[in-house]
Specification:
By secondary structure, this protein is an alpha+beta fold. Helices cover 28% and strands 22% of the residues. The strands form three sheets. A seven-stranded antiparallel beta sheet has the order 12-11-10-9-8-13-14. Mean pLDDT is 88; it is low at 322-337.
Length: 337
């Protein structure tokens, strides 16, 4: 059976045999077990996450401004005036909802990555919707955060369209256990969101090399817009990215989290967001389940206090050529043509 949506509809017993973790197991066996609820605000609030990272000496996108109340919306023109590029985010948003990326500002027009133009009134309306809680967790009133736009690392210029790709790394008890590169597409409107049409590329923890790619849950061999194949894709600065993800354990106290990182052309690796409830699509992109890797980490009696050492352990333990994959689930890249 190919590793695709059909497999995800298989029986629970068959999924367990593949090592697949489902929602119930994630919610009760990982999130509830390893993430104390009182720590959620540290990652559910992106502004708090940014301040935590800065205190830990971790690079994050520059904060350009915030908007907290509806009557402050009128200050947007003054806040945005000095910048030709910026990103507007809901502080308590999730799944990429409510994120607005502006790549060019020309007089009274603001241009999205797709080239679509917006006027200031459109941005004010968007910000007002964020403040009202349209994109926040639970629909509660929110705050708007305006950040500098990350500059695309040249290594990804042929693998991303109209936006900046990010790297999701799942971390358990401080150990990176699985990774995925999310590549923006025209369909995703420049956002690295799989549900909106971004491409998810499974990444070998051991080497940073691409393993398998999916879009809308189906296997793909090349980027849908640039047509660049993924067979030679390797994420640079891989050791540093793993170490940053591992360090999020000490930074937050969360035992199970998803660290979202990017490579900036000028500043290198940086953290953009942390998630206490990371999704499970990463298993599809890697074409392997999380369960065997979770078992390895849960068997560790004493957690190594050094993030660099934990990252090195994960590289050795979860490298693709030493991982255990059901043979019938493996295909070479030529099989996906």
């Amino acid at each position: 059976m190919p590793w695709n949506d059909a497999m995800l509809l298989a029986s629970a017993k068959k999924l367990r045999s593949f090592g697949i973790i489902g929602m119930n197991q994630r919610n009760f066996g990982l999130i509830s077990r390893y993430n104390p609820r009182h720590l959620y605000p540290l990652v559910d609030d992106k502004l708090k996450t940014k301040l935590l990272a800065q205190e830990a000496g971790i690079t994050v996108p520059k904060l350009l401004g915030t908007v907290q109340y509806q009557h402050d919306v009128k200050s947007l023109k003054e806040i945005l005036h000095p910048y030709s590029q910026f990103v507007i985010k809901p502080v308590k948003g999730s799944g990429g909802k409510g994120i607005l990326v502006i790549t060019e500002h020309d007089h009274n027009l603001y241009f999205k990555p797709s080239g679509d133009a917006m006027q200031l009134a459109d941005i004010e309306r968007h910000v007002s919707n964020i403040l009202s809680g349209l994109h926040s967790l639970g629909g509660k009133p929110d705050t708007v955060m305006i950040e500098s736009l990350i500059q695309l690392d040249p290594v990804f210029s042929d693998y991303s369209y109209e936006g900046i790709p990010d790297i999701r790394i799942i971390v358990l008890r401080g150990y990176p256990i699985m990774s995925m590169l999310r590549l923006t597409t025209h369909a995703s409107d420049g956002k690295a969101n799989l549900h909106q049409g971004a491409v998810g590329v499974g990444i070998d923890i051991g080497t940073g090399r691409a393993l398998h790619a999916v879009q809308y849950g189906e296997s793909v061999t090349h980027h849908p817009d640039t047509r660049k194949t993924f067979s030679e894709l390797t994420v640079p600065h891989w050791d540093k990215l793993l170490q940053l993800a591992a360090a999020c354990y000490e930074m937050t106290g969360l035992g199970y989290l998803g660290a979202d990182l990017v490579l900036d052309r000028d500043q290198g690796p940086m953290i953009i967001e942390l998630n206490a409830r990371p999704g499970l699509a990463i298993q599809v992109a890697n074409r392997t389940g999380l369960a065997p890797r979770v078992a390895v980490i849960e068997a560790i009696k004493t957690i190594d206090p050094d993030p660099q050492s934990r990252a090195a352990f994960s590289k050795r333990q979860f490298a693709f050529d030493t991982d255990i994959h059901p043979p019938r689930l493996l295909r070479t890249r030529s099989d996906d043509r």
